[in-house]
Fold this protein.
Amino acid sequence: MGPIKAFHLGLAQVSEITLFLALGLLVFPSQFGGIMAEALLLAIVLALVARPVGVALATALDRYSARERTLLGWAGLRGAVPVVLALLPVVERVTESIAFLNLTFFAVLVSTLLQGRRWSRSPCASGSPATAEADRPRGGAPATLR
């Protein structure tokens, strides 16, 4: 990995951390009590049903192996986008929008904690072309960027 790519990767990670910190200031864990069960169920359904089905449909015509589809379904996109979209009703002062934001934030948090480990080291990902670059040693890159 070249120095420019490493710099951009580091900058992206710092930006993502900053965005999550800013979004985290908008929710209050004391308000999670009433929505925890719903958010946990939502996160489980998304992780185990909706995301894998969506990946299967989106990659049906592509030549991905079952292992690669599993990796895409398990470690797929999640994060700030749902939380930012959940903020729109709050900005427009829609009734119950704070509960919707809290539900979304908690579901993203649970999903990230459950699925947020480094997938290039998982048995599902090892040897996959999708993670081949991540498995190669990166001479000179700081350990945090590996």
